[in-house]
Amino acid sequence: MCENEDNIITIGKYVIVKKLNFKKIYKVTIDGTLMLGKDLVQMHEIIGKRFWTTFEMIPMKDKKRTYFLKEVLETESLNDLLNELPSGTDNRSIVDDGKSQKLSKEEIFQLQESGKSSKEIVSSLIENNKSFLDRTEYSQEKYLKKKEKKYFRYITIWKPNISSLHDIYFKLDHNKIGNLRMDSLSQLLSYSDVQSDGLYILYDSGSHGLPAAAMLNRIGSNTKGYLINLHPGNVPQAALVHAMNFSTEQLTRLINVNIYSFLRLYYQGENAVLNNISKKCNLKHNDLSNKIKEDESKNNNENHINNKISRIKEENIKERNSDNVNESNETIDHSIDSNLKRKLNECNECKFAEVTPAKKPKWLLETQRAVDLVTNSKARGLAIVAKEHPLNIIIALLPFLGASRPFVIYHMYRESLQETYMVLKQKQNVINLRLFSNFLRSYQVLPDRTHPDILSSDTGGYLLTGYLVQ
Question: Which stretches does the entry tag as region Disordered (predicted)?
């Protein structure tokens, strides 16, 4: 029953919309729409359907470039058109003068508006193209792929997984996920030894939650494993964690904690954290008081000057003009009084917060939960994905790692890991240190056209791995 519910598209879930080789993440809403290039697609039809369902984009007559969805069992393929037509031997006689297509833009647009399928539109384009039959077989195939990308009207709703989410973000902007390539991510999971049981610690300084989502996916839901996700900011980056549609039980295995609050609470106790909060509140209270005093003195000076100006105007201008001046002064005084009242209320709220003991904030409870976990048992694995220099981070987190347990550090640049390697090499409780880089190259495998991909990432970053011993 649970598997069936997980495979049904419901409101609030994240899905991946795939059109040919293009993928996009979409959160399901009641009357949601999605922009696919320049096309606006109404997505309410996918609610209640199963994942991996294919839909056809049908144009709406009253709205331009707006489509609604209709479920289909199979899609059209344009490859059949190549088998029906002859091809040329070379392209030397073809001149690209822009006049080979007989159909005008208006006629092509009318074909789209008439509701014809993508196969029928492309067939019309081929019939009215003078040079298509003279092209080689490979050139005709490239032409069909180009037209298919433009006129293809079928989308498939995918269920999110780590591989597809990584593919979307890496193609969109790989800097958003810290240039973390898929082979580097897989090795990060392997060297940190993430399993379904035990406690694991992750430090991530900005990868949109990709390492956390991958590690939590390996831990699972019906397990005894926990993941402490340490981050440097006030709010963790968890876009990809939410996109995985984890169950509530599985999300309880993830504990998002600020690293500075975690270390302060562990070493100094709860009183030190609360004192730090009260100091910040006192600073805010003092700043507000100083601002109010400055505004009061400034307003007194302004009122004194305004009174002088009003006296001069009353002596030199007519009675009706003096009435206008009085009205303007009343509005100024009213705005000054409202501003002072607002700031006094903020100051009084801050004073009341100091005197009245409030409930513990949620982040403090999460931090206390993480401290209790590392106090009761050591971590089985430690992973660090850092944009800053990782030396101080690994030194601060190594005491929470268990004996004979692995750690792995990912960084985009080698120099930072080299310095970290030299410092850790001098420690007697760290062994089997390895610093290496990955080189992954994908290949296009087609008949008579097998070669490495021309456009590929030059580096997947660097990894530093090791073990902590007693």
Answer: 292-332
Q: Which of 140-154, 292-306, 364-378, 443-457 has the highest mean pLDDT?
A: 364-378
- In sequence order, the 6+-apart residues with CB closer than 8 A to the CB of 257 are 228, 229, 230, 231, 363, 366, 367, 370
* Global pTM value: 0.77
Question: C-alpha distances in angstroms, 461 versus 62, 174, 318, 370?
Answer: 51, 12, 79, 29
**CA-to-CA distance for 100 and 429, rounded, in angstroms?**
73
> What whole-number distance in Å separates Cα of residue 279 and Cα of residue 371?
23
pLDDT in tens, 47-102: 999 999 999 998 887 788 888 999 998 887 776 676 667 777 777 777 777 778 88
CATH code: domain 5-75 is 3.10.330
Q: Give the separation between CA 208 and CA 195, rounded to whole angstroms.
A: 22
C-alpha dist (Å) from residue 424 to 9, 396, 398, 461, 470 = 49, 12, 11, 20, 14
* Residues forming beta bridges with residue 26, ordered by sequence position: 15
Taking the C-alpha atoms of residue 78 and residue 145, their distance in angstroms, rounded to an integer, is 9
* Cα–Cα distance, 229 to 382 (Å, whole number): 10
One-letter identity of residue 159: K
Fold of 168-267+363-468: Rossmann fold (3.40.50)
Is it true that 5-75 and 168-267+363-468 share their CATH fold? no
Q: What residue ranges do the domains of the chain occupy?
A: 5-75, 79-91+101-153, 168-267+363-468
